[in-house]
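Schema walk-through. Below, the input block comes first and the output block second. Nothing else is stored per chain. Lengths vary across the set, and this one has 131 residues.
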Amino acid sequence: MPAAPMPAGGGGGRAAGATSVTRGGGRGWLASAGLVVLVAVAVFGDHGVVQLWRLRTEVQTLHQEVAVLEAENQRLSRAITDLRENPLVIERIAREELGLVRPGERVLRFPRSPRAGPATGTTAPNPPRSP
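--- output ---
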């Protein structure tokens, strides 16, 4: 017996022009959309990858600031120790910043640069003497 010809719609007993709808076909689209939303939240949300990158950058910057402050703290600690224990440091500060001198010493002040003019604390040149 010869086989019966197939209908024009693709066969399978469906009528011509009928669309193929799989069972639960709308759920696949909904699952894909949900997955896209979950990925977007995971990347851009409050606890997402972008926020994690920002926080890591901030932590690195803070570590650098801490290192700078620790170095400054050590420098200041050494300066405090010198001020408490080293009389030469105290004498240098008294001479440079306060202008103190020992008895019998003379202080000569020179201008810092030729264009600066007379330095503070110097006297004016002697006026010319008349004959």
